[in-house]
Design a protein that fits this description.
- Chains A, B: This is 3-dehydroshikimate dehydratase.
- Chains A, B: Belongs to the bacterial two-domain DSD family.
- Chains A, B: Pathway: Aromatic compound metabolism; 3,4-dihydroxybenzoate biosynthesis.
- Chains A, B: GO terms for molecular function: 3-dehydroshikimate dehydratase activity; isomerase activity; metal ion binding.
- Two copies of one chain form a homodimer.
- Chain A is of the alpha/beta class.
- The first copy, chain A, has three domains: about 260 residues, TIM Barrel (Alpha-Beta Barrel); about 130 residues, 2,3-Dihydroxybiphenyl 1,2-Dioxygenase, domain 1 (Roll), CATH 3.10.180.10; about 180 residues, 2,3-Dihydroxybiphenyl 1,2-Dioxygenase, domain 1.
- The first copy, chain A, has 18 helices and 24 strands.
- In chain A, the strands form three sheets. In chain A, strands 1-2-3-4-5-6-7-8 form an eight-stranded parallel beta barrel, surrounded by six helices. In chain A, strands 14-15-13-9-12-11-10-16 form an eight-stranded mixed sheet, covered by helices on one side. Chain A has an eight-stranded mixed sheet with strand order 18-19-20-17-21-24-23-22, with helices on both faces.
- In chain A, helix 1 links the parallel strand 1 and strand 2.
- The longest helix of chain A has 21 residues.
- The radius of gyration of chain A is 28 Å and the shape is elongated.
Chain lengths: ~600, ~600
């Protein structure tokens, strides 16, 4: 179906908004009146600009407080409408949104509303314009879609139809099933928005917290199915008011917006995308750094061995158990420290995974490889982290693609006694503050991962939010997080949690090898003693090593942290009995301890 | 009364929080358990630190999910409590907060709750500790203060009392009158928080939106009156969870917090402060700049004449009608442009105004003056703007203090034909984003100004909020604003609105004198024509000069803007017929036009 977006959903000048919508692949836009008023472009300029960008103008909006008012007020409203219809002619827009009245002058009088809307439609028809009447959830007398439709039906004018908005309908808890009773050709427009489920004033909720479909808690897909069943032929259009989007750059927001409509269409059975290929494991993480020494020392102390080197690039492969870390000192390395640049995900079908990512607007990365290297399928996540899709190691089922590991040449190494790390438990990736919801939707839709509930955590300097995405067996776990507004240098820390079956032994071996463990305050252990009973000596061991403890309904979690190198640190994690979390309850203590050593 | 603050209300490490509370003048603190857990200080260290800082530890909090549970669970809870009582002994805290249970294990069984709380109190008594039981607004079975009190009364134990929290009581709409029926000695503690009135889930409201008394919409003062009438003798303690405070610096937040308690005590009749002395006019504004040329050129084009120069400092006085602007090129001038540094407020009692400001913790500014200069009473507003209190020009009623104007020596000047500016209409001062509510409370309480409703305005890159404070006759108007997170250079624009009886003539004279008026898009005037009818030619004039138009129930407003010099620009404003606003409806267009010329 055709896709469209209201200019109010994006930040910047009207010129910037239109360019962003076009680049992201939208077919059309709704022109929000205030964006036009504030623009130095004339309506004719805007029309030409849209044509150049391949954008249709699907709606002009909104016209307010028109109907069910005393005659002299309605005469003023018609005068105002005539001005706007002339403007729409210059703009080349043929549909106008009329919101149900919130005016104290409006009467609770459906027949009057219908009669006046019929008059408005008569005038509109003279200009070749259609009027789409929409119930605002906080409309004074008309605030449900079926009520708005009854008035449109009673007015019975060919230039008058209704506009449906998923937020207004679902936020009030209306049953969208009844949409199917509206003739499709009378649904002049469909606006889509999601929102997190919040018990708050609906107007405030609408004005500040709307989000793209799939980012909130409303069943937008179900609503769209009903609208399609009714026979609607118009575009799917996003109208999102959100305080965060207002401040974020228009370009990436428009891409995220368009992705949400693609995912929605797939879910509603309106479009086919390449099937998701769920990753089956973390093949490697890649650190980039100008100076490999601090990261190498840390990996060595953790019990990793430098087992191989890339045959054409300055990249070392460190391994312990099934955990692999690449250390790259190539051109991508930043001068200012070590950072996590890429994640290798094991995939049963790497090129299929990349095809889906590309169809969902993920930037496909150039394959910077020597001729003899394995072709790697890679895309960028919203925060810029590179995701490589690599063939599962056990590729017996399918014709083996060239394997990434073959590009690495073994190097002689001391078989350092490993410290018990078995694999990567999870990755914790801090997102830019305005990209958290987008990152969750990206990982769910592009990678086919499941999102757990989000968790709020207070640290000494602000509130952190975190939400984990995982595959079914937990062999891929990524904790996406967002913290206080970035500090001066905008640094976002990332961390890699390594699984061990005996965190005490692994932590001790790390420390004995010269590693520095994050010190945890003694008060934390006094509190643990108050909350749980431990075998003799166990708490003393935790205290000595800085091991934190948590339990849930399924099992137990013990974990500790290394010092930070650049923007990266490691966690050692022991999960027992099916524990499902990430120790979020301990995060305030960990964050405070990290602040203290900075 | 003694004042106290919960450590959770301030940002930073526990050490930073304690220092900030002490410096701001609090008598005591509530130690929030998570702050203690995350601190490297032992309980004994914290006790000593508090003693050094002159802070008592008034409360340890919270203990959760204690009561009305099955016996084996209660045994675990008593074990946990014993640990905490031992800790409190080390800390030197003698009162613990117990919140009503939210546990799914808790039964709806008041007698069981009372019996178990009695057992808890028995144990507490052995440690010399008192238990203060509080109803959370979202407690599973106990969520009103009278219910919590009935259970405490039934338990009938000398070491068990109740804790009252203004948020939990007022957010649920409970009538605080009933507090007077509780014996004062059984009210072990009083926690105070305000909150903006929002229809939302009470737990989310409580966790994220609490604010200091007087900054929200709850009648905290009325509640305190009832608690005092009941005979309560303990401290007034602030417990505020707020996402903004979590990120703001602890020092200024603690000062704002303490100011709110001083104002509250005055309002509740518990303490006397020097009376507010409401300013009667804007005597001058002071711009500081390293280069006086751009500001002087702008003032000249506006029709101001340079009438005098300070006898000992590099400060020029520009005047037109009763509007006065000082241009200071002295040491305070920043290298990076012109900014608004100070406001002179006419006051019937300058030193009285300064005494009140000082009593309300406003920093008193050094009087950097030559020996013969008039003594100026000056304090700093929360955003750093200097406020000078100067004697009203007509000081016939009282022994005239030396007048600030006497420090300026007239300079010969061409009597530039004035352009019709009569006085300063209002000042628009953009606040740092985390100090908006504090600034409003400061201007209300320190200056005795009245705060109007706050207004939200969208600009292309984010949401702005603005709230005006005024004196009774509108001769002092200050529009406090807050905008999107600061840009790279953190610049906050300020502007000075100049009153004129004929904005068209003044704007034209400004333009003819070489001034640059902000250009307003043509689309704005098309919209004005749709909304209102104007006499022939009037809109064309507005369009030519970039004059914006608004009306309210009282009258009309016409205004336009100059270009920006450094961080400052001017507005020309014509108010007719008692218009009360500031043209907020036009702000998006103005802001977009200003973004466009940047």
């Amino acid at each position: 179906m055709r896709t469209s977006i209201a200019t109010v959903s994006l930040s910047g000048s009207l010129t910037e908004k239109l360019a962003a919508a076009s680049r992201a692949g939208f077919d059309g836009v709704e022109i929000f009146e205030n964006d036009l008023l504030a623009s130095p472009l004339t309506p004719e300029d805007i029309r030409a600009r849209c044509a150049d960008l391949g954008l249709s103008i699907d709606l002009y909006q909104p016209m307010r407080d028109i109907e069910a008012v005393p005659p002299e007020e309605f005469a003023r409203n018609l005068r105002r409408a005539r001005h706007k219809f002339e403007l729409m002619g210059r703009l080349g827009a043929d549909t106008v949104l009329v919101c149900s009245s919130v005016s104290p002058l409006a009467e609770d009088h459906d027949a009057l509303a219908a009669a006046q809307l019929r008059q408005l439609a008569d005038l509109a028809q003279d200009f070749g314009i259609r009027v789409a009447y929409e119930a605002l959830a906080w409309g004074r007398h008309v605030n449900t879609y079926d009520h708005a439709w009854r008035i449109v039906e009673a007015a019975d004018h060919p230039a008058l139809g209704t506009c449906l908005d998923s937020f207004h309908i679902l936020a009030r808890g209306s049953d969208p099933k009844g949409i199917e009773d509206i003739p499709g050709e009378k649904i002049f427009f469909l606006q889509l928005a999601d929102a997190p489920l919040m018990a708050m004033d609906v107007l405030q909720w609408s004005r500040h917290y709307r989000c793209f479909p799939g980012q909130g808690g409303l069943d937008v897909t179900g609503l769209v199915r009903h609208v399609i069943a009714a026979g609607y032929q118009g575009p799917l259009s996003l109208e999102i008011f959100n305080d965060v989007f207002r401040q974020a750059e228009a370009g990436p927001t428009a891409v995220d917006a368009h992705r949400s409509l693609l995912v929605l269409q797939e879910a509603a059975g309106l479009a086919a995308l390449p099937e998701p290929v769920v990753p089956t494991g973390a093949a490697f993480v890649e650190l980039v750094t100008a100076d490999a020494e601090p990261a190498s020392a840390l990996l060595g102390a953790l019990g990793f061995a430098r087992v191989a080197r890339h045959r054409s690039k300055p990249v070392d492969l460190w391994q312990q158990g099934e955990a692999r870390v690449l250390v790259n000192t190539g051109p991508a390395a930043r001068r200012d420290g070590t950072s996590l640049a890429a994640v290798g995900l094991e995939s049963p079908d790497p090129s299929g995974a990349a095809r889906r990512a590309e169809a969902l607007l993920a930037p496909v990365l150039p394959r910077r490889l020597a001729p003899e290297d394995a072709l790697l399928d890679a895309v960028a996540a919203p925060d810029g982290t590179e995701l490589f899709f690599v063939a599962t190691q056990d590729a017996a089922q399918r014709p083996a693609p060239p394997h990434w590991r073959a590009d690495f040449v073994d190097v002689p190494h001391q078989d350092a006694a490993p410290h018990g790390v078995t694999r990567i438990d999870h990755l914790a990736l801090t997102q830019p503050w305005h990209e958290f919801d987008e990152a969750v939707l990206f990982h769910r839709s592009v990678l086919g991962l499941h999102a757990q509930d989000s968790v709020d955590v207070a640290d000494p300097y602000g509130l952190h939010r975190s939400r984990a995405v995982t595959n079914a067996d937990g062999s891929v776990r990524i904790a996406l997080g967002v913290g206080p507004a970035p500090t001066e240098d905008g640094a976002r820390a990332q961390h890699i949690a390594l699984a061990t079956d005996d965190v005490v032994a692994t932590a001790r071996a790390f420390r004995d090898a010269g590693g520095r463990l994050l010190a945890v305050p003694a008060n934390y252990y006094d509190d643990l003693a108050a909350r749980h009973e431990f075998p003799d000596g166990e708490l003393e061991t935790y205290r000595e090593l800085g091991i934190l403890y948590d339990r849930d309904a399924y099992g137990e979690f013990r974990h500790c942290y290394t010092h930070t190198v650049g923007r990266v640190f490691f966690e050692l994690a022991q999960r027992d009995g099916g524990y499902r979390g990430y120790g979020a309850q301990n995060a305030p203590v960990r964050l405070a301890a990290q602040h203290a050593v900075r």
